[in-house]
């Protein structure tokens, strides 16, 4: 290998898009879209949405493009998860930079329906429970595990759970999102005390009414950043 | 470009090594090693230690190798900071995966002295105050800014500050590390109350004696993880 070729490695991007799915009456679950591969290696196996980084696009642009091409999904923001670069993670040497985002189920449904209606949607995409995945191509099982670990971890110190919620929500909605992320039940009274003490919620004057007693709606205090947005700057944002 | 060449982008690694430097009597400061470039582009400018990713090494191995080759430093653990991939961050297209670590000043001194004694140390490395850097090559000023932001941010919810401290330390040592990271003074009584309430410190039976009244030494509770160690696994760890 000549000196000028050093560092010439194939670079790919993938995305982990997490949503909270609720089947009628069942406990909500974290779900993500997968794409069945139509080419070698791992032809026929499920994989994360993704593709090659092109010369004239940033990493985040490549992640957004390949996600939109396969799933029609367009999260308002993709956060960089990790760069995976083990030597043998693919038959040829590939570094994959992985992005992730949380989407509400109603956003997923609206974007998916619009994509179907466009006539350009491929038929090899399916949503899967994050906790019961098949064996995925490459190291994608490990990547999903890491995304779920980061999600549970961030739930402890950031407002990441609100990525699953509409702008106004009840404390029960918020607790359910945390329970889904953490995979365990939380005591309602303790949960209420903790979120009220944290001071990240702003009570509204609105209530949700229905079969139960009216529940106050809350909004998140947007003075606190939702997520680590990375070293954003004019250079890192999308080029026109 | 043929299909088989898609994604062929040059991949580099860089490292941000942070230490806490104390000049006699002065306020301690965060410092990092820089390397003066001997080749184009940016010949003669200062840059982070780093180099090209080779075909047969993982990202972390490349970061550790290039750091050791230039500075002789060998942190016990390098954490991935971020993958920088803006299209115009370098004259040719380069994706840089950046790692970071905290080193104690005495570790830096011992490793640097051993490297000097080996006779292989290059003469183009210097330590700089993180808060008063010259204009660095590429987007390296932005990378350092991001590393410092992450350090300050992590100080709020993790034990990152202990990366600057020996295994046993006084509360004044710990407060000084936090003050250096955050760039502001902290009230000693409030600080003591907060760290005691957090329960991450284990008091020892040892005291530091000297010109002041004896101060109890503490250790960190190692049941809590020091840092996000990434998706570590047999595949991601170094190959033999």
Give an overview in words.
The structure is a homodimer of 240-residue chains. With 240 residues, chain A is of the alpha+beta class. The first copy, chain A, has two domains: 3-154, Nucleoside Triphosphate Pyrophosphohydrolase (Alpha-Beta Complex); 160-220, Orthogonal Bundle (Arc Repressor Mutant, subunit A). Chain A contains five helices and nine strands; from the N terminus they run E-E-E-E-H-E-E-H-E-H-H-H-E-E. Chain A has helices spanning 59-71, 105-118, 140-155, 171-182, 188-198, and strands at 8-21, 29-36, 46-47, 50-52, 79-84, 94-102, 125-129, 201-208, 215-220. In chain A, strands 1, 2, 3, 4, 5, 6 and 7 form a seven-stranded mixed β-sheet that branches. A two-stranded antiparallel sheet of chain A has the order 8-9. In chain A, strand 8 and strand 9 form a beta hairpin. Chain A is elongated and about 65 Å long. Chains A and B meet through strand 1, strand 5, strand 6 and helix 3 of A and strand 1, strand 5, strand 6 and helix 3 of B.
